[in-house]
Amino acid sequence: MKIAFVTETFYPSTNGVVTRLMQSIRWLVREGHEVLVIAPDQGVSEVEGAQVIGVPSLRFFLYPNLPLALPSRRVGKALHTFKPDLVHMVNPAVLGVAGIWYGRRYPLVASYHTHIPQYADFYKLPWLKPILWGYLRRLHNRADLNLCTSGAVQDELVSRKFSNVRLWQRGVDTELFGPRHRNEEMRRMLSGGEMDKRLLLYVGRLAAEKEIERLRDVLLASDRFRLAIVGDGPHRERLESHFAGTRTVFTGFLHGEQLAQAYASSDIFVFPSTTETLGLVLLEAMASGLAVVAAASPPSREQIREGATGFLYDPETPGSLVNAILALLDEELLRRMGDRARETALTQGWNEPSRQLLELYRTVTADPLGSRIPAVVRKSAKRAR
């Protein structure tokens, strides 16, 4: 099968969308499929055996480290030359407008990965939320099939009248992440040399909607903890100021073996965000054998078994986060939760989600438009294509 991805974000950018996309491409190419990626230009022409066509990009002021490409005729030219069997729009928003416009000539899949409307609250633009929801719904409803990465998000999209929404199973790299990557030098760096402290770890984009500021309360409540913040983003300078004078280390982005070492060399993974559609880093931490403390949200509830693989705290209840983390000063509880978390994550490698994706592609190519159009007009619609 010839598959074209049109994506708002791609390698070498670092985020959960790119991780999932890279794993899917790797699997598809290994299985003998031909893959094209159209993405904001970052100087990459080939990744994992897939051709990459860059669209000229600019920097968006809210996320200056994330390239943004505007709709371009280059998308149509690339698709016309490649002649895909199917086009997959990843997180359509800006470049995705061109992906939808030109991609509708082919069987078309779109996947929803980022709760952009929810971000409006954190940037003091709440009036934008209904506009953003309407805009995203119009884009997605031009696709033959819409995918999302958690049951909670599937329910929300259906309630907001997104059409033909299916759950795309979660996955994690069980070969890369694991306790065997524990490294004393990495722990020394992350802990600022205080190796005996309980080491808290956050991994992800540093942005306002992640609510990382909440973690300061833990450091003020007890001197038995250190915090390592792995990642980068538009909120970093403000966070460094917020955590000034506390036992906190900022590392910037880490990748590959270094990232695996950072997880495995820590004690507790902390995740205060409530705006995630999945939270891939939760699974990465669990695969590394870490107990997880996360804000209670529908996607985090799907991944964490309360009291077994971690704790879910109530972000609306003062002291809830601090109390959850203080409980993990108990060495036996910490070890038991970490072991169970890893057992859970090991059942969720990337092969099955990738295999499921291919089956969904085959369903769409066998019956583009699917059930979106009444059977009486479906034949004429196919002829028009």
From TrEMBL:
The chain positions of domain Glycosyltransferase subfamily 4-like N-terminal read 15-175
Q: Which Pfam families match?
A: Glyco_transf_4, Glycos_transf_1
Q: Which domain of life is it from?
A: Bacteria
Q: Which UniProt keywords apply?
A: Transferase
Q: Which InterPro entries did the record assign?
A: Glyco_trans_1, Glyco_trans_4-like_N, Glycosyltransferase_grp1
Name by which UniProt lists this protein = Glycosyltransferase family 1 protein
Instruction: Please name the GO terms that the record assigns under molecular function.
Output: glycosyltransferase activity
Domain Glycosyl transferase family, chain residue ranges per copy: 195-343
